[in-house]
Write a structure and sequence with these properties.
- With 579 residues, the chain is an alpha+beta fold.
- The chain has 8 helices and 26 strands.
- The strands form 4 sheets. A 14-stranded antiparallel β-sheet has the order 8-7-6-5-4-3-2-1-14-13-12-11-10-9. Strands 15, 19, 22, 23 and 24 form a 5-stranded antiparallel β-sheet that branches. A 5-stranded antiparallel β-sheet has the order 17-18-16-25-26, with no helix packed on it.
- The longest helix is centred in the first third of the chain and has 18 residues.
- The termini are far apart.
Length: 579
């Protein structure tokens, strides 16, 4: 029998949000941010392809996903009704190739809501959402239940389950099928701009604004049929990515059934196109010898001048500039050892900044940061309440003097994390700190969360940083015997074997709050830290944040130019300019 409608938790009205990032292809700690961006992209892409269907009848659609014209996977969307509860499901299966290297990722989201007839117009429609991610045979699950006045988040990573409750914003927003109807109605009415609001659990329990703007009409072939379509640019608040959606402009599915999603990326266009089950499933099957565009090195930011000895420098200055500032601002934080001065600004958007990294001048934490309990509390990813983590940190603490200060403890824990992770590659995907403690495997993501959790067990506030790290590689070689050449921030290259390319690659590390200042610590290095880091943002990794705190970097991918302007090696000396 039909269940009673849930009590009011807020009014609801819209849906859609997505971002795609380059799949990860190099097995090395510094490349973990590529993995992170891939998962954000896939998870959010799921919300696009089923997010605008207006019909309430059952649905079963297949999409073929391509990068630069090459098929890389499938997307399967369905809508089903059981007892007045509608469930929209989107399942994505993506393969990423690099020579014989294969990364396989699977994602699924479910959004369950009440049908219109089962609830009063003023009552909430959303019941729950579920998100499941599988990568490298590791599964991550997140369930979000909408209950009176709040959201209950249950995260499962490895063997750990973590439950968090957060207040639900009291504002109008829409469940998935509601937003489909809203978009359809606006599109059929001839509107060129359609605004709606939604909650995307993978971004955290936040209501986000979504704006779709009609930018033109064209003709395209969809599953063997030529059709007239309308093209819409889509902007999601806090997600600075250029994205378009394409809908039929005639026939029974006009304005309702997504025909194609497009994203412009540095390595080529990414497109998910409506097709059929056979074609879509074939795209998610490994093909021997299949080559995709090189994705990791394409994301690196080159430098004209090398940092002479990155592990010995006390200070560097980098001029960072956006190539395209039309939809993005260069909002780099001053925190830890990094201070930022804005140099160019237009229309309220920062276009250029001078970034100084000075290992002798850590910045003070703000009053808000000093009071933020999230930096000392356990979460699903930084699960510092785990007994294994507590015991490991206690073992490290016993090796130190009883008089050891928090900075000495922080350095010792960083060194422990560096040595504890023995398998430093990408076969681990988004493991929690406790999982990493047990498996001793991971890339820079796992190094960062492990260290953050160890620090919190010792009552040292900690957070995870995302940004760029200095790397070097030979210009005329990408691989030797199938192994990537020295893209490690921990392995500067020697002169004489070829031209050396100096670059910055995407990375994650940790900050510890000691004596009121943020101290940067990188557990992937054999040294505590070096000047070769550009901080883009930070996150407590609290469950309520989701991936939202990391989204600011999305619009920077392939959109940065950097120049080294100054480097200093004498702790008391003046240093020297490079420009």
């Amino acid at each position: 029998s039909q269940q009673a409608a849930p009590p009011r938790v807020g009014r609801v009205i819209a849906d859609a949000s997505h971002v795609w990032s380059p799949p990860l292809t190099v097995r090395h700690p510094l490349s973990a941010m590529m993995k992170v961006r891939t998962v954000w992209a896939c998870a959010l892409l799921l919300g696009v392809c089923a997010g605008q269907e207006a019909a309430w009848e059952d649905e079963d659609l297949w999409y073929t996903v391509r990068i630069a014209g090459q098929p890389v996977g499938s997307l399967h969307t369905t809508v089903s009704n059981e007892g007045g509860r509608y469930t929209s499901t989107e399942a994505m299966h993506v393969l990423v190739h690099r020579g014989d290297d294969l990364s396989e990722m699977q994602f699924q989201t479910d959004f369950t809501e009440w049908e219109e007839a089962s609830t009063p117009a003023s009552a909430p429609r959303a019941i729950e959402t579920a998100y499941v991610q599988e990568f490298a045979k590791q599964e991550v699950k997140m369930l979000c239940k909408f209950i009176p006045g709040e959201i209950e988040l249950t995260s499962h990573n490895g063997e750990q389950t973590h439950v968090t409750k957060a207040p639900l914003e009291e504002t109008e927003w829409a469940a998935r099928l509601q937003s489909r109807r809203q978009f359809k109605d606006g599109c059929l009415a001839g509107k060129d701009t359609i605004k709606y609001r939604t909650v995307r659990p993978e971004l955290g329990p936040k209501v986000v604004d979504v704006i779709s703007v009609r930018v033109g009409n064209e003709t395209m072939e969809v599953d063997g049929v030529e059709m007239a379509v309308s093209v819409w640019d889509v902007a999601i608040a806090g997600v600075p990515v250029n994205m378009s959606e394409v809908y039929p402009d005639e026939g029974p599915y006009r304005c309702t059934r997504l025909a194609q999603m497009r994203m412009q990326m540095p390595f080529g266009d990414l497109r998910a196109t409506l097709s059929n089950k056979e074609e879509a499933q074939a795209a998610a099957v490994k093909v021997e010898g299949q080559q995709l565009p090189e994705l990791v090195y394409a994301m690196f930011v080159p430098l004209r001048v090398r940092i002479e000895s990155v592990n010995e420098a006390y200070e560097v200055r980098m001029r960072v500039k956006l190539r395209d500032a039309s939809q993005q601002t260069l909002d780099l934080p001053s925190a830890g050892y990094q201070s930022v001065v804005v140099e160019e600004e237009a229309n309220g958007r920062v276009q250029q900044a001078l970034v100084t990294v000075n290992l002798q001048a850590p910045l003070k934490a703000t009053a808000e940061e000093l009071a933020d309990l999230a930096f000392t509390s356990p979460s699903a990813m930084v699960d510092s309440s785990d007994k294994v983590l507590i015991n490991l940190a206690a073992t490290v603490r016993k090796t130190l003097s009883k008089r050891a200060g928090k900075l000495e403890v922080a350095y010792a824990l960083r060194e422990f994390a560096y040595e504890h992770i023995e398998t430093k590659d990408l076969t681990t995907a988004f493991a929690s700190a406790s999982e990493v403690a047990r498996t001793k495997a991971g890339d820079c993501t796992e190094h960062a969360v492990l260290l953050a959790a160890l620090l919190r067990t010792q009552d040292i506030p900690a957070r995870v940083c995302h940004g760029l790290v200095y790397v070097e590689r030979y210009a005329d070689e990408i691989e030797r015997d199938g192994t990537p050449l020295a893209v490690s921030p921990d392995s500067p290259l020697a002169e004489g074997e070829g031209e050396i390319k100096a670059e910055f690659g995407w990375h994650m590390w940790t900050q510890a709050m000691v004596d009121g200042v943020w101290v940067d610590l990188d557990a992937t290095l054999h040294v505590p830290y070096n000047v070769g880091h550009i901080l883009v943002g930070t996150s407590s990794m609290a469950d309520v944040e989701g991936h939202y705190q990391h989204m600011g970097m999305a619009g920077l991918i392939g959109n940065l130019d950097m120049d080294l302007t100054f480097q200093r090696y004498d702790p008391n000396g003046p240093g020297h300019d490079e420009l």
